[in-house]
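A quick aside before the break. I want you to see a complete sequence-to-structure record at least once, exactly as it would be stored in a machine-readable document. Don't worry about memorizing anything.
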Amino acid sequence: MKTHIVRARAADEAFPRGEHLAAKIAEVAADPVEVTDEVAEMIVNRIIDNAAVAAASVLRRPVTSARTQATAQPYRPREGRSGGTVFGLSRQTRVSPEWAAWANGVAVRELDFHDTFLAAEYSHPGDNIPPILAVAQHTGRTGAELIRGLATGYEIQIDLVRGICLHEHKIDHVAHLGPSAAAGIGTLLGLDTETIYQAIGQALHTTTATRQSRKGEISSWKAYAPAFAGKMAVEAVDRAMRGEGAPAPIWEGADGVIAWLLGGTEVEYRVPLPAPGEAKRAILDSYTKEHSAEYQSQAPIDLARRMRSRIGDLDRIESIVLHTSHHTHVVIGTGSGDPQKFDPYASRETLDHSVPYIFAVALQDGGWHHERSYAPERAQRPDTVALWRKISTVEDPEWTRRYHSTDPNEKAFGARAVVTLDSGETIVDELAVADAHPLGARPFARAQYVEKFRTLADGVVDPAEQDRFLDAAQRTAELGAGELDRLTFTVAPEVLGRAPEAREGIF
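That is the input. The structure line, written in tokens, reads:
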């Protein structure tokens, strides 16, 4: 890997195009380096993972709304351009690729249940799959070409996340997704560096927004924001292919992203990118979720599950303090200052970002469920509310250090729980990584991804359709041109009919 120093530049400073970060990323995207077998295997795992969480969310209102919006757009296939599929609908139902990216992006993101990578910034790199797959389906690409595009999407997003912190400046993390999806589409289509460069600039410019989407009263826009970024990336590549340019230099310009949205003129960022001819392996550093909750809640859920037998009578608890990283404390803990994190009438999205709520429910139930654990009657249970309000977080410098460690064997997103009982006795335990993490007690491999899909698709996707999808997904690398429509699933009309009726909109 080669580390690139990125900083804001004065308007009159000599700064050749080839030195722009967007140009460096475009060079990586255009590099014809082969995808390793290990990376290709993991990409298949994440295609299955995305479909699993989409199956679990396909009947929910935000997903239904996005699906209805997508199918309302006039679209007519033409030679060489067949459209993209939409989760839940027949494979013969095609929509324009940017709208397929939109509908599928919301389905994948709605339950906050797919893969993650945390470093200087945080991310869900699986958000790259819907836009890149939609364009691959639309343009008749092969499975091997799709894998190449996804390797780039994961690489670029994860490398940006390693080097550039957005949340410090209250910018939403999807600002790294627009450029990574545009780069991945560029690889998929075999575009030249100049076209990819322009697409990256446009994608970044149109996907920078504040992180209020994940603060206070969190709404369904939390799921829509990455879908919007994917849709913008598809449109950006389309414009760039037609010869339209982007603001430049988009990151480093005097009025660019770094100068006015991030660290300003005095800050340098270090972004690692693969050197020419170096394989794109970043996906191997990411990890998926066993539980439908913010990633930094994964280890605390497993910790609560482990501690409950030692605690015994939960009514005897006087207080629980979770000692954890700065990021966990201020984003999903009491360091956020958000009263909504203790509101039993809060939205599902808000509860998903409340580790005191999540730890309380996991202690009481001994596990976590993507629907039952968020049900209003579950959140409003008096005994849950009482326990919930006894839980707080504090930052521990050692957990913060481990959170930001570049050593994968040291990097951790867990906590140390100190439970004080009414007798004054304390029970202490800690867990550095979730059980499903590559270094955890039960790391996810292909069998676990398949089981996750079957579990979440149960009662939604017919067993024969489950089998068909899993067979196609596990043969992604062998799928020929025009066969990528197999990488979706159809839900029977009577089941899809259980989804809430979409409200009338403009379309």
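Two observations worth writing down. Residues 37-57 form the longest helix (21 residues). Residues 310 and 436 are 22 Å apart (CA to CA). We'll return to this after the break.
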